[in-house]
Amino acid sequence: MANIVKVGIIGTGTVAQLMHLPILSDLHELYQITAVSDVSPSVLSYISNKYNATAYASPFDLVKDENVDAVFVLSPDQYHAEYAKAAILAGKHVFVEKPVTLCMEDLQELIDLEKSHPDQMCMVGYMRRYAQGFLKCKELLEADDRPIQYLRMRDIILEGDFFIGQTKQPFMAQGDVPAEVIEESKKRRYEQVGRALGEGCTDQQRMTYVMLTGLGCHTLAAVRELVGLPVKIESVSVRGEHVVIVFRYNDFLAIYEIVNDQDIVQFDAAIEIYQKDRRMLIKHETPYLRYQPHNFVVSEATKDDCKTTTYGPDYHDSFENEVKYYHDCIVNKRQPKTDFIDAMADLELFRDICLKIEE
């Protein structure tokens, strides 16, 4: 019982209800959900009763609860900085879903707090960086010095409503959020994205930035861990929610596609690494369906043939992998790899991408 981490959840929307809450509940030997907070009174009541947790209308009251060891900040992005700061100052460990913040100055404040509270583990939820296929790819890259010649990455997806509707997963929509709260939330997001991109930023730059911080950071942060940051952004082509980016690394080019407005039922999220005689493919499935089989595929050319090795199927949930890892960080006082400092590189890259967009 000594190693059970008591968790307070700020924000109990769709993703929290379908992923974080059931996973944390299933991992009852590691975590106990003791407190929840949400802007929807009906959802707050439903979730607190379902998980037998104390309900708080205010997140700032939740972080003061002595029965909470770690706070999971799962609210809309524009509130992450404020709630994470309050949790750290209240002496709690903090897990923040990506993006950790929308602008760099807010993130820098969290980094400074993180440094001044070294015994509190602060982690950002880049769940794809804890997937088994990703970790195997990283292992193979580190064990082999053959050069990368080309890299493709993409997020061409259908959002979760279709999958949720087909599978009838139980969740309660936040239908009673006060209108003034919704309006204030929109204004806050607009202001923070404006601070991130600077005065005079265009609507297209804003849209692209939101896409990168919301969906693109999964893939771009994963590639950053595998091969580092690009030395140059060669080009950025955009048309609404269609974005194509070409990056230059020291010895190779990389292309990233992000399309997030299609009705075709697919979730084509992948990273492909080409090394002349070897190709490695990391493929991710929709997170809205848990325990889907994941495969990591390596194809290698020989003198007379080609050999394909499939690692998997692996049925571990990436969300589950990351919270298990986070528990280990808390118990063993080990700094997470996806901490606040790590996340700064993404916000800087996203800003530079958007500032390269030409009308």
What does this structure look like?
This protein is α/β, with parallel strands linked by helices. It has 2 domains: 135 residues, 3-Layer(aba) Sandwich (Rossmann fold), CATH 3.40.50; 200 residues, 2-Layer Sandwich (Dihydrodipicolinate Reductase, domain 2), CATH 3.30.360. It is 40% helix and 25% strand. It is built from 11 helices and 14 strands. It has an 8-stranded mixed β-sheet, covered by helices on one side. The chain has a 6-stranded parallel β-sheet with strand order 3-2-1-4-5-6, sandwiched between helices. A hairpin with a 4-residue loop joins strand 13 and strand 14. The chain is globular. The termini are far apart. The mean pLDDT is 94.
In short:
The protein has 359 residues and is an alpha/beta fold. It contains eleven helices and 14 strands.
CATH fold field value of the largest domain: Dihydrodipicolinate Reductase, domain 2
How many separate domains?
2
* Cα gyration radius (Å): 21 Å
Q: How does the major sheet shape up?
A: 8 strands, mixed
Oligomer category: single chain
Helical proportion, percent range: 25-40%
Number of strands: 14
